[in-house]
Known about the structure:
- There is one protein chain.
- With 157 residues, this protein is mainly α.
- Helices cover 52% and strands 6% of the residues.
- It has 9 helices and 2 strands; from the N terminus they run H-H-H-H-E-H-H-E-H-H-H.
- It has helices at 8-15, 25-34, 44-52, 58-64, 80-89, 95-100, 109-115, 131-144, 146-156; strands at 73-76, 101-105.
- The chain has a two-stranded parallel sheet with strand order 1-2.
- The chain starts with 7 loop residues before the first helix and ends with a helix.
Amino acid sequence: MAEVRPGPAAGLQLSALPDHSPLLQPSLAELRRRAPPSPRPLPDAFLLRFLRARDFDVDLAWRDSFPLKVRGIHLINEPVIFHAVFSMIKPFLTEKIKERVHMHGNNYKQTLLQHFPDILPVEYGGEEFSMEDICQEWTNFILKSEDYLSSISETIQ
C-alpha cells in the first residue's frame, strides 16, 4: 500500500479516507505522541474530526489549534477604554472575527436576549432558571466528577 506523504495535497487525500483506514494511523499516533498524558485519552473519532478540519497538518493542529469553535465573544459591562483598544485591533481581524465580537455595555439585557433568548438566567432577563439554580446544577456536576478531576490533578503534578 502506498504511503501518503505530509503536505496540503496529502491532507486532502487523507481527509477523503474512511475513519478505519490504516493510512490515518500515523497522523493519529503523532498527535497522541505530542499530547500530555491523560487519564482519559480522546477517542480516535474526535481526533480524526479535529485533524480533518486542519487537512491533517499535525503541526498546524498542534501549534495553532484548540478543539473549540468560538461562535461569539460577548462582553457586558466592558470598560469604555475597551472600545478604543478594540478599534485599534479591529483592522487586523478578519470580517468573520469582527462579526463575532459583541459589546453589550451597561444596558445589556435586551441585546443579550436577542442572542440567547433560551439560556439566560432570570437575573439577566431570561424566563426559566435563576443563577442559584444554575450554580447548584454546576456544583452537582463538579461533585459527581470529583474522581475524574482528582485524577487530572494527579497527572499534572
